[in-house]
Amino acid sequence: MLVIRILLGFLVLLVVALTILPKAPGEANAQRDIIIKFALTLGVALMGALILFALFSTKNMNTAKKMQVLRTRLMQERDTYNHLQNSQLTVSDYQLKDLAAQDLENFLKTNKVNKLFLRNLKPASIATLKSALNYELDELTIDSLSETSLTQLSKQINFTVRKLHLLNLKLAKLDLGELIQQVGLDNLHQLELNYIQSNNWAKMLTLSFPKLNSLIIKQSMLDAKVQQQLFMQLAQSNQLQELTLNSVGLEEGALKQLAIVLQANLKLQMLDLSYNKMFDLGLEYLKNPLKKLTNLTTINLIGNNINDQGVKILLEIAMANPAIASINISSKNISSELLNQLNLQLTKNRN
Question: Is the torsion defined by CA of 230, 231, 232, 236 positive or negative?
Answer without folding.
Answer: positive
